[in-house]
Amino acid sequence: MHVYTKEEEDKMVLEAFDDLQKAYGASNHKHKFEIVAKAFEFAAKAHEGVKRRTGEPYILHPLAVAKICVEEMGLGSTSICAALMHDVVEDTDFTVEDIANMFGETIANIVDGLTKISGDIFHESVSKQAENFQKLILTIPSDVRVIMIKLADRLHNMRTLDSMPPLKQQKITGETIFIYVPLAERLGFFKIKTELENLCLKYQQPKLYRELEEKITKITPKLEEKIESFLVPIREKLDQRGIKYNIITRIKSPYSIYRKQEKKEVNFDEIYDLLAVRIIVEPQADKSEEELCWTVFGIVTSLYPEHPSRTRNWLSTPKANGYQALHVTVMRRGDKGEIGSWVEVQIRTERMNEIAERGLAAHWKYKNGIEDNSEFDEWFHSVRELLATENIDTVEFVDKFKMNLDTKEIVVFTPKGDIKRLPQDATVLDFAYALHTDIGNHCIGGKIDSRLVPISQRLKSGNQVEILTSKTQQPEAAWLDFAKTQNAISKIRSFLRPEVTELQKEGAEKVNRLLVFFGQKLVDDNIDKVKTFFNYDKRNDFFVDVARQKVDLTQVSKSLFQSPASSIFSFFTKNFNIMGGKKVPKLNINPKEVYYITKDDMAFDLVRLAPCCKPIKGDEIVGFLEDNHHVVVHKLDCDEAQRIKATHGNRIILVDWQKDMDNSYLINLSIEGIDRQGLLRQIVNVISEKVQINIKNINFSTIDGAFYGNITLFAHSNDEIELLTEKLLKIKAVKSVKRVN
After folding, report:
1. Which residues contact 623 (CB under 8 A, 6 or more apart)?
2. 581 against 626, higher pLDDT
3. Could you give the CA distance from residue 332 to residue 330 in angstroms, rounded to a whole number?
4. For residue 452, what are the contacts with CB-CB under 8 A and spacing of at least 6?
5. 520-548 burial, b for 16+ CB within 10 Å, e for fewer?
6. What's the whole-number average pLDDT of the chain?
7. What is the gyration radius of the CA atoms in the chain, in angstroms?
C-alpha cells in the first residue's frame, strides 16, 4: 500500500471532484451543481481517513463511480448524488434517514437500495448470498437507477482490480462475466459490457490477453490503412447525396476475438471480420430514420458485394434492450494482389447510436421514461414474475435469472401478424405461454406455416405460429424438459406446485429411510452425500426424481457415509498415510495461497480434472473444493467454472501445476488440409518420432481432395501440444491444427 501525504490526498480528491463537475457540466441535463457539491462534501466527510487497498483516499471510489454514471451512462444529478453516497450508510454511522433529511426521499431510497446490496453479491453463507442477490434484482423494476449505479460500481472495481489478491480477483471476475456482463447487455450498455468482458479476460487468462493485444497492436496500422481506402468511395457517395454523417472504425476487442476463436475454432489469422465500420447519420427533415438508414445501406451495397447471410435488420424490430441498427457485412476487394476481406458495416442514426452506447438511460431520454409494454417493461415484468412466483434455492435462482438475461432472441409472428420476441431455442409451448397463461396450460400442439408440430418444436425467426388447445389438456412435469422461457417454466411450476411438493416430501422420506437403514443421522451433510453421489446439484430436483423412481437408491452402499476414522483400514490411512503400501498425500490447502497439484494428488483422486474443459499442465486453472474436500480443476475460462465462481465463490481455491508434474493427459486434435500420398505417414512420424508423443487412436477421412483428421494422444503439457502444432503446420499439406474438447 502506498502512503500519501495529506497534501497529496487533498490534491487527488479535488482533481477527481473537478473532473466529475466537468463531466456533469458537459452533459445535457439540467445542472444542479449545488446538490452535487453538497453530496460530495457529505460523503467526503463520512469517509474521512478511510483508505482503499491502494492507499488512496476512499472517497476517490465514489467519485469515480459518479463520473461513470454521468459520463458513460448519461445519468443526472439524482444518480450522481446517490453514487457519491452509495457506501455511506454501509461503512459509516450515518443512516438512510439522515440522507433523506438532507437530500430527499428519492436519493435516500436509491442509497438504501445500494446499501442492501453493498459489497460482493455472493458471501460465504449461501442464504446471505441468495438474499443479497434477490435484493439486487428486486431493485430493477422499482428504481432501475440502483442497478445502473451498481453496474458503474462494478466497472470501477474491475478497473482497479490490480490491487486485489488473486483469489478475490477470480471471485470478482467470475461473478462479473456470469451476471454483470449479461446484465449490462440486457440494459443496453454495450461499451460497458465490452470493457467488462476484456477486463475479465485480462485477469482470467493474462497470457492469452497479452498475446491478443500484441497481435491487435501489430495488425492495426495495416487494417487502418485498408479501412481508409474502403471508406473513400462511401464518403464520396454520401457527400453526393447530401447526407450528414460521422464514421467510426473499430477493430474487434480481445474478448470478442477470443470468443470467436473458441466458438468457431479458428486461429487469429482466420477471423475474417476483424474490421467494423459504424456510420452514424444525422436526422433529415424529409426522411424518416428507417428511410435514411436504408439509403446508406443501398450506397454501401452498391459499392461492395454483401455477404448473403450476414445482414441484420434491427430497425423495425429492435432488440429486447432497445438496440436499433442495420448491420451488413460486405467484401472489401484486395489491393495489389492482396486477398479481399469482409468488413461489417453498422448503420445507425444519432438517436440509435446514443441508445446503443448509453442503454436504458438514453432510452429514457427519448421516451420520457419507460412506457408500458416497451421492451424494457416486458423484461422488468418477467423479472418480477420470477421473484414473485418462485421459492427456489440460491444456485437455482442465479441460474434462472442468468437465463432471463439472455438477449439472443428470435422474432415470431401470431396468425394475425403480431410480433413476439422469444429467446433462441424457444418452443411452441413457450410461445403459447407468451400469449396467455390459459393458452399455455391447455396447449396440445401448434401449426407453423400450416404444418402441424408438437409443443416441443423449436421455433425459428420468421415463423408464423398458431397454437392448438384442448380444454382437457393440463401441464405435465415433462413440459419442464423443453420449456425455455422463464415465463413458461414459472407458470408450469406454479400449476404443478402441489404435485411437486408432494413428490418432494415422498422423495425426502425415501432418502431418510435409506439413512436410517445405514444407521446414519438425518442431517443435511448425509443427504448431500447421497445427492452428490447421483450427480444432482439441487436437492428438491433430486427428491422429485427419487419419488418418480428415476433414481435407484439401491446403488448406495454404507461406505458412502464412512468417515476416515470409521474403520481400521481408514484409521491406518488417516494416521499413517498408507494405502496399498504407498504413502497417500493429504491436501493441505491454505485458501490464501496457491496449491500446487502433485502427481500423487491425481493418482489418489484427491484432485480431479473437470470433464467439461479437460485442463492439462500449462493451462491456466482454478480449483473448487467439493463436499469431500477433494478438488475439481477447471480451466479459468471454462463456462462451468464461471458459473461456480458466481454461485459458490467461497469454494474457490488458487491452484497450479507442480513443476515436476509429468502426468499424461488424453488430448483430442483436429487436423485439416489438402490430401496427398504419404501424408498420414508424415503426420504420424512428426507425432511419434519428432515430438515423441504416444497416439491412442487416429481417424482420417478424405473428401474431394481435402482431408479431415481426429487424433487422440497422450500429452504431458500444453507446451508440448503447442510444439506439436508448430511442427505439424510445417507440413505443407496441413492447413489447420486445433486442440478440441
Report:
1. 595, 607, 631, 632, 633, 634, 652, 653, 654, 655
2. 626
3. 6
4. 445, 446
5. beeeeebbebbbeeeebeebbbbbbebbe
6. 82
7. 29
Cell matching residue 248: 467510426
Residue-wise pLDDT for 344-402, tens only, equals 899 999 988 888 877 766 665 555 444 444 555 666 666 656 555 445 554 555 566 66
The Cα–Cα gap between 300 and 733 comes to 38
Instruction: Give the residue ranges of DSSP H helices in 304-443.
Output: 350-367, 375-389, 394-405, 428-435, 437-441
Cell of 612: 467439461
Give CA separation, 350 vs 253, 357, 365, 376, in Å.
Answer: 23, 10, 13, 21
**% of the chain exceeding 90 in pLDDT:** 26
Please report the pLDDT score of residue 676 as a whole number. Answer: 87
| Strands 341-349, 275-281: pairing kind | parallel
| 671 membership: H or E segment, kind and range | strand 665-674
Closest CA to 190 of 253, 133, 272: 253
CA 47, 49, 53, 59 torsion-angle sign: positive
Contacts of 296 (CB under 8 A, 6+ apart): 238, 243, 245, 279, 281, 326, 347
As beta bridge partners, residue 607 has 631
- Residue in 657, 646, 586, 592 with CA at minimum distance from that of residue 621: 657
Position 397 scores a pLDDT of: 55
Q: Choose among 149, 225, 151: nearest CA to 181.
A: 151
Q: Tens digit of pLDDT for each residue in 17-53?
A: 999 999 999 988 888 999 999 999 999 999 998 888 8
Indicate the pTM of the whole model. 0.72
Cell output for 482 = 423443453
